[in-house]
Design goal:
The complex is a heterodimer of chains A (114) and B (115). In chain A, strands 2, 4, 5, 6, 9, 10 and 11 form a 7-stranded mixed β-sheet that branches. Chain A has a 4-stranded antiparallel β-sheet with strand order 1-3-8-7, with no helix packed on it. In chain A, a hairpin with a 2-residue loop joins β5 and β6. With 114 residues, chain A is mainly beta. Chain A is built from no helices and 11 strands. Chain B is 0% helix and 55% strand. Classes of the chains: A mainly beta (114), B mainly beta (115). At the A-B interface, β5, β9 and β10 of A face β5, β6, β10 and β11 of B.
Chain lengths: 114, 115
């Protein structure tokens, strides 16, 4: 069974530029999560989708971050414009059902904002 | 508000030693789930265990064991006879049912196992 795929693995941008990350969850998984993991901290949930509907986005900085999950499968997370404090690893995860299930994580995208 | 505290930032042990990673959680909800995940140097978090708030039975899986105590709001993780491959960052997490099953992670404990 293929795992959660993410791309790119690394991205370096200047502040105020835009960036987009892509995630392909495990086939059949209804729930998809985007987390931000700042160095030395635990993952922080940014947004959670169930199929193509948003379950929770309370910690998503909506003035600059946006996410979508088209057709309930792949998802993209966008930052526009980026700030220095957005430097982090962005993790995508998926699970079969709700947030009570085991989550399967992708390798993450390491973003550096200069 | 919900919170997960992992007070140990880093632990260093010598191979074959036993080590316990502490996790203390806060929630007012009566229904919740607790998790442990491992993040090896490669970066991908790997699920280790899930426990619901109604099941306080301790669990053992090979060299791993977990002690869940609601009275102290703790869900501690013990590795027996540690190995170098156990070196990783370990995260405790809490999922609460109201509000869409949001998952809150602790800050993690970095475990170094020296040969």
């Amino acid at each position: 069974e293929a795992g959660v795929a993410q791309s790119p693995r690394y991205k370096i941008i200047e502040k105020r530029q835009s960036v987009a990350f892509w995630c392909n969850p495990i086939s059949g998984h209804a729930t998809l999560y985007w987390y931000q993991q700042i160095l030395g901290q635990g993952p922080k949930l940014l947004i959670q989708f169930q199929n193509n509907g948003v379950v929770d986005d309370s910690q998503l900085p909506k003035d600059r971050f946006s996410a979508e999950r088209l057709k309930g499968v792949d998802s993209t997370l966008k930052i526009q414009p980026a700030k220095l404090e957005d430097s982090a690893v962005y993790l995508c995860a998926s699970s079969t059902g709700t947030g009570l299930d085991e989550q399967f994580f992708g390798p993450g995208t390491r973003l550096t904002v200069l | 508000a919900q919170k997960v505290t992992q007070a140990q930032t880093e632990i260093s042990v010598v191979e074959k030693e036993d080590v316990t990673l502490d996790c203390v959680y806060e929630t007012r909800d009566t229904t919740y789930y607790l998790f442990w995940y491992k993040q090896p140097p490669s970066g991908e978090l790997v699920f280790l265990i899930r426990r619901n708030s109604f099941d306080e039975q301790n669990e053992i899986s090979g060299r791993y064991s977990w002690n869940f105590q609601k009275s102290t709001s703790s869900f501690n993780f013990t590795i027996t006879a540690s190995q170098v491959v156990d070196s990783a960052v370990y995260f405790c997490a809490l999922s609460v049912t109201p509000g869409g099953f949001k998952t809150i992670f602790g800050a993690g404990t970095r475990l170094f196992v020296k040969a």
